[in-house]
């Protein structure tokens, strides 16, 4: 249970760091939306990797496959959250709250998309990067252990 709560806290930290950098780049430095989201999420990913490294026993060593899996998970999550669903989320917010300032609408859309990004990447990480850890969360079978034969002294 402790490992799961630590993993969730790291995911929340990833969300906050990513959205913070996105807002800084988008509003503060006036970067284009797609680049601000990409770089902001990359900052969150680097932070997550640094914090998660002690928990990643089976991918601690550098390998092309491990790095490819990590990059693939985050690129897929970014594409789904910030490119594929962006028009739908933005359209839904503009219908739901047409009176809002466009900047506020964009910020709400970014927060919702960043939340989708974090949740999707957590799920994909769990099943692609940490498949052995998923198995440890399964409940043990309800079968009693085999009896141990008594030894004569």
From TrEMBL:
Keywords for this protein: Membrane, Transmembrane, Transmembrane helix
Superkingdom to which the source organism belongs: Bacteria
Membrane-spanning intervals of the chain: 7-27, 33-52, 64-88, 108-129
UniProt KW Transmembrane keyword: yes
UniProt-recorded name of the protein: Uncharacterized protein
Taxonomic lineage of the native organism: Bacteria, Bacillati, Bacillota, Bacilli, Bacillales
């Amino acid at each position: 249970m402790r490992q799961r709560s630590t993993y969730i806290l790291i995911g929340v930290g990833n969300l906050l760091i990513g959205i913070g950098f996105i807002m800084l780049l988008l509003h503060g430095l006036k970067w284009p939306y797609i680049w601000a989201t990409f770089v902001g999420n990359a900052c969150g990913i680097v932070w997550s990797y640094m914090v998660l490294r002690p928990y990643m026993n089976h991918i601690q060593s550098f390998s092309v496959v491990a790095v490819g899996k990590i990059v693939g998970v985050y690129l897929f999550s970014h594409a789904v959250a910030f490119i594929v669903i962006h028009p739908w989320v933005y359209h839904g917010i503009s219908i739901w709250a047409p009176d809002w300032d466009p900047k506020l609408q964009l910020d709400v859309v970014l927060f919702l998309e960043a939340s989708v990004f974090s949740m999707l990447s957590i799920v994909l990480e769990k099943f692609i990067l940490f498949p052995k850890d998923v198995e440890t969360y399964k409940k043990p079978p309800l079968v009693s252990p085999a009896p141990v034969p008594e030894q004569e002294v």
